[in-house]
Hints:
Layout: H1 9-55, H2 61-103, H3 107-111, E1 114-117, H4 125-151, H5 159-174, H6 182-187, E2 190-193
Antiparallel strand pairs: 1-2
Helix pairs in contact: 1-2, 2-4, 4-5
Amino acid sequence: MPYSDRPSRWRRVGARAVDHLIAFLPALVLAWMAVPVVEKLLVHQAGKVATGAVAAADFAGLKDAADQVTTIAVNAVSLVLLVITAVTLAVLCLYDWLAHAFFRRTLGKALFGIAVVRDGDAPGLGRCFLRTGVLFGLPGIAVCWAWTASLLGSPTGIAVPVVFGASVVGLLLAMGPTRRALHDRLSGTEVARR
């Protein structure tokens, strides 16, 4: 592909920003719906713990009760955020994969006049699946796994450093003369102006 057919980095960033906004809309709805549920859970748990301490006339135990309620609150909010993150990643992966496979572009890419191609043709379901998996799937799974492990009190291992390292490598490749990031190179695709 001639260099003039390659879109600018800013077109790609703009297109990706639009696509992320589209994918994050369901997350906003989920968050809005989750707030009253979490609030009821926390109020219920706080009432149970405090009532038990007061009924036992154990005012020294109120500090322990407050610590327990705080732990419950932090874990509940973290769990809700983990679920919202996982759903958002799933929506983003499906949207990205299917839009590229069937239309060569997402809505963001269409607005910015760019498309994903392989030798000038549509990349196909398999290549788009690989492309999306490398871009969002594997990093998303690693982050959610590390988050879940930390909630369970287990060591998170190397998941976050690996995701960070792969992101840096992908970004450096995208800054090169061919402007092909890691997900494009591994899937044999490229982004072109249309």
